Amino acid sequence: QVQLVESGGGLVQAGGSLRLSCAAAGRTVRSYGMGWVRQAPGKAREFVAAIDRSGSRTDYSDSVKGRFTISRDNAKNTVYLQMNNLKPEDTAVYSCAAAPSAYYGYVFSKIVEYSDWGQGTQVTVSS
C-alpha cells in the first residue's frame, strides 16, 4: 500500500491557476499508474486526469482537457496537477489515487481501478 498526501489547494479567482502536488510514501510510485479524481458537494466522484507509470502517456476528462496537465517526477515520488484557466465548476475536493501497474503506457481512466487514495485537497474557484 502507498500513502498519498495532496497539497496545493486553495481559493482562486476564475481564470487563475493552481498546482496540486501528491507526495507518496511507503512505496515508490514507479510501478504505479497515478490519477486525480475530484468530488464537488452533492455530486459523484469524477475522473480528472491520469498518467502511466513512466509518465509517457496521459488521459484527461473532456471537462479539463486543454486546461489541466498531469505530470510526475518518479525520483521525487510525486505527481502533479497543473490547473490553468480555472472555472467555478472546477470547485471540488481533489484527490490523488494510485493503481499498481505491470505495464508501461497503461493509463487508468476509471475510478474503480484505483486502490490507494489520498485524503484530498480543497480547490475553490470564485467567479
Query: What structural class is derived from the secondary structure elements?
Result: mainly beta
Name the quaternary structure.
single chain
Helix content, binned percent: under 10%
Radius of gyration, in angstroms, nearest whole number: 13 Å
**Helix segment count?**
0
Proportion in β-strands: over 45%
For the sheet with most strands, the description reads: 7 strands, mixed
Low-confidence spans: none
Description:
- With 127 residues, the protein is an all-beta fold.
- The protein has strands at residues 3-7, 10-13, 18-25, 32-39, 46-51, 58-60, 68-73, 78-83, 92-100, 116-117, 121-126.
Task: Summarize the entry for a quick read.
With 127 residues, the chain is mainly β. The chain has strands spanning 3-7, 10-13, 18-25, 32-39, 46-51, 58-60, 68-73, 78-83, 92-100, 116-117, 121-126. It has no helices and eleven strands.
Question: How are the elements arranged and paired?
Answer:
Blueprint: E1 3-7, E2 10-13, E3 18-25, E4 32-39, E5 46-51, E6 58-60, E7 68-73, E8 78-83, E9 92-100, E10 116-117, E11 121-126
Parallel strand pairs: 2-11
Antiparallel strand pairs: 1-3, 3-8, 4-5, 4-9, 5-6, 7-8, 9-10, 9-11
Give me some keywords for this one.
about 0% helix, about 50% strand, 11 strands, single chain, 7-stranded mixed beta sheet, 4-stranded antiparallel beta sheet, mainly beta, about 130 residues
